[in-house]
Structures are given as structure tokens and as C-alpha cells.
Amino acid sequence: MAIIEIENLTKDYEVGFWRKRKVRALDGLSLSVESGEIFGFLGANGAGKTTTLKLLLRLIFPTAGTAHILGSDIRDIRMHNHIGYLPENPYFYDYLTAREFLDYCAEIFRFGAMNALRHSSSFGRTPDMAFPGAAAYSLLVLTNLVYNSFGGDGGGMQFFYASPIRFRHILLAKNLTHAGVLLFNIAFALIAVTYLYGAPHLPVTIATLAGLLFAAPLNFAAGNLLSLYSPKKRDFSTFGRQNVSQTTVLVSFGMQIALVAVGTGVFAVARAYGNLWIASLLFLILAAISIPISRFAGSPDGSGARFP
Length: 308
Prior knowledge:
It is built from ten helices and four strands. The chain is α+β, with helices and mostly antiparallel strands. The protein has a four-stranded antiparallel β-sheet with strand order 2-1-3-4.
């Protein structure tokens, strides 16, 4: 079995003021190192030895070519848990003792107090938790928009009250727009996480989507009510000024804390049993409760009747 496989690995550096001139530091390197071999990587200064090692460790990124270590693509940084690297010029902190420095390095690579977590289930792998974190942040950044739905309409609010349609349809249209923005953000977050850490495991992905199915309807439900009963006009000509009422700020803040607490609790329960599918099941049960609440809140009077 090849421990290291390199195929046509190339690295160009862009130099000059306009960065239009390219200098090739590594030119189409291909090699393989088999299991059990001691491989001497020799070459003249400027041949690309250091460049190759930095490419394998993803300290820099290749212009062309591919490489695998222990069967994993070098783009999957989880592979770093199984390899070691001694830099040419190591640096030691003056204010740390030898033991403190070793403890510090061990914690970085999760060999210290985090060791048990690292060897538990997929919960112990930080990259796997990147997608749930990014999804939660995607929902959080919509708070100001969702909880002040009519802030951008300004004087057009009179048109809404006079229009011969149910107000629930207006809220539904706005919720669908917000849901579209959320889905775009989630898709972008998944692409970014996959590129940086590798694709999250299927149980993590399903649990995250199930969590959104629970949290998003509650956010939209609370946003509908606050947008109606505590609206505030949004002035796009000013920057940095609060665009929502104080009531909305307090309620939205409390709602986000509650959702984070519930989500953390669900993941904690699943972690205690060592099975992420439990988180998916619990989130789906919660979603079965939150979706009807959202539908009820989508109608201002609870029945879908028009405002006078």
C-alpha cells in the first residue's frame, strides 16, 4: 500500500506588482512512497522539496495535480490526525516550560484532556461539528430581517392593509423569501465546510437539517408576530442604527438563546448514547410541534381572516 501518492503536483507563485508573472516552484512532481519505506527526499536548493512538503500539509495550495496520504486526499485535513511533521525552524515559547509546551501542543492535536472526546464518536471530530455551527449561524444572521419583516416596506404598509388579499398570504410570501435566503446560505455553508474539512458524515448532515426544520419555523412564527405587533421602519440611509424595536430585540435574543439551548441539549443526549441518529429523531419530533405553531402564527387572527 502506498503511504504517499503524488501525481503531477505543480505549484506556481504569482509575483510582481500586478502579480502577472508566474514563477514555478514545483513542476509536475509524481512519486509514491510505499508502506515500510524510509524515503530520502533530496534535491538542490530551489528544487521544490519544502514546497512539496507544504503542499502535502495544505500549508499552501497546488496549482495543479493531486496527492494522497494514507489513502486520503490532502484536501481532507482529518488525515492530519495520523501524521507528524517537524518544521525546519521550530519555535518554542519563552514563557512556557517544556511540560507546558507539550501540554499545549497535545491540546491542539486533541491528545490531552480532549483525548476521550477525540476517540468517542463523530461528536469528537471538530470538522463534523462545523456544519451544524455554520447552519446555526446562517439562521442567526437572518434575525434582523425575519423579526422585522415589514421594516423595509416603509410607506408601502398602507398598501398591505388596503389590498384585497389575506394578510397571511403576505406573511407566507415573506417567509418563503426568507426560507429561500436561508437555503442558499445553508448550501453555501455546506460547500465551504466540505472544502475546508471534507464532507460531513451523513448522520451529522441529517441531524443538522432536521434541527433547521425545527428551528426555522419557530423563528418565522415569532418573526411574524413581532413584525405585526412591534414593527419599526427601517431607514436604509443610516448605518449602524438599530432597525428593530427594543421589544423585538429582547424577544429575538431570548428566542435564539432558547433554540441554541434546545439544540445543544439534543446533541448532548445523542452524544450520551453515542448515536447521532438520535439527534435527528428528536429534532424531527420537535419539528412536528414547531411547524403547526408556525402555520398558526402565519395567520394574524389564527384563522386566516383579513385585517379590516
